[in-house]
Design brief:
With 145 residues, the protein is of the alpha+beta class. The protein has helices spanning 2-22, 28-35, 38-53, 131-134; strands spanning 77-83, 87-92, 102-111, 117-125, 138-140. It has a five-stranded mixed sheet with strand order 1-2-3-4-5, with helices on one face. The longest helix has 21 residues, at 2-22.
């Protein structure tokens, strides 16, 4: 009976370790580094240029004239993918505290008080409910079903 109790205790402890790592808190510093990375800045510029010079927003990295998604990685970012409507999808690495974390930057053309057009981005996450705690400029928006 003692051996059975020891095995149960080990299994329970192992489950706690696995559950604990899966529920790790998002790392605000890593998310900040991802959102301020030069690679993401280059993609934002590419999308903005494409939107301001064409009637249709880019729907791929190629249309935004930026490197392929898998070449836009860093210590915090797994890849950056431009999708339909010029939406920039930032796929985070586990170091950011969320396995499979995604940030989405949705572009919109805005006209300043001086009459000049520019592109403004709104940041969302479809799978990080507490994103606003790590990045106040972002909000959680679960995917619609």
């Amino acid at each position: 009976m003692k051996l059975r109790t020891k095995i149960f205790a080990c299994v329970a402890a192992g489950a706690m370790l696995v559950c604990g790592s899966a529920a790790a808190a998002i790392d605000a510093n890593e998310v900040h580094l991802a959102l301020t990375s030069l690679r993401l800045a280059l993609v934002k510029i590419g999308v903005a240029n494409a939107m301001l010079s064409n009637a249709t927003p880019p729907s791929s990295n190629a249309e935004a004239h930026v490197a392929p998604a898998n070449q836009l990685d860093s210590d915090e970012i797994r890849s950056i993918l431009v999708s339909k409507g010029g939406v920039i999808n930032v796929y985070l690495k586990p170091e950011a505290g969320v396995e499979g974390g995604i940030l989405q930057l949705v572009p919109a053309i805005a006209t300043g008080t001086d009459g000049k057009r520019g592109v403004r981005y709104t940041c969302y996450s479809p799978n990080i409910p507490d994103i606003a705690q790590a990045a106040p400029e972002c909000s959680y928006r679960p995917p619609s079903k």
